[in-house]
Amino acid sequence: METMLNNVIEKQIELNAPVSRVWRAITDHREFGEWFRVNLAGSFEAGKTARGNITWPGYEHLVWEAVVQVIEPERLFSFTWHPYAVDPSVDYAKELPTLVEFKLEPTATGTRLTITESGFENVPEARRAEAFLRNDGGWTQQIRNIEVYVATKP
């Protein structure tokens, strides 16, 4: 399922893994880094900035940075970040970030994971469409990455 209304990206998948397993893949910084392709320096803590080098081929020169917002065990993990912040000469700190939410719900066969990114209306108009398009494709890839990750690393 996918929604692109009102400057919101939403991806949803049912994973054949228990909520506890999916939760660990999302909130353990080492596991998150494996499937998300970022080498994070430390654990996720609400109110703190998480950062590390991107390990995705072609983007290794970039630093991934997000501010953890909410950690509600086995239900909700969220952070804010600057979408498609790929130009090292731009100071994205002047922009309002978007909000990324990972919501988990138990199902009969595993876990429904919904990833939502909202707030694109706050991205400067000159880069809004590109940021939305790139992140929409990025979340499509990341949902596949976590599906393979939890299936192969129970």
If you had to describe this structure to a student in words, what would you say it looks like?
The structure is a single chain. With 154 residues, the protein is of the alpha+beta class. It has a single domain (2-152), classed as START domain (Alpha-D-Glucose-1,6-Bisphosphate, Chain A, domain 4). It is built from 3 helices and 8 strands, in the order E-E-H-H-E-E-E-E-E-E-H. The chain has helices at 19-27, 29-36, 125-152; strands at residues 2-3, 8-15, 38-40, 49-54, 63-72, 76-81, 98-106, 111-118. It has an 8-stranded antiparallel β-sheet with strand order 1-2-8-7-6-5-4-3. The longest helix has 28 residues, at 125-152. The model has no long low-confidence stretch (mean pLDDT 94).
**3D shape:** globular
Straight-line distance between termini: 24 Å
Mean pLDDT score: 94
CATH domain topology: Alpha-D-Glucose-1,6-Bisphosphate, Chain A, domain 4
Let me know the CATH homologous superfamily. Answer: START domain
**Quick one: CATH class?**
Alpha Beta
Q: What's the β-strand tally?
A: 8
Rounded to an integer in angstroms, the radius of gyration calculated over CA atoms is: 15 Å
**What sequence of helices (H) and strands (E) makes up the elements?**
EEHHEEEEEEH
Counting copies of identical and different chains, the oligomeric state is: single chain
Which strands sit side by side, in order, in the main sheet?
Answer: 1-2-8-7-6-5-4-3
H/I helix tally: 3
Protein name: SRPBCC family protein
Organism: Acidicapsa dinghuensis
Family: Belongs to the AHA1 family.
Pfam families: AHSA1 (PF08327)
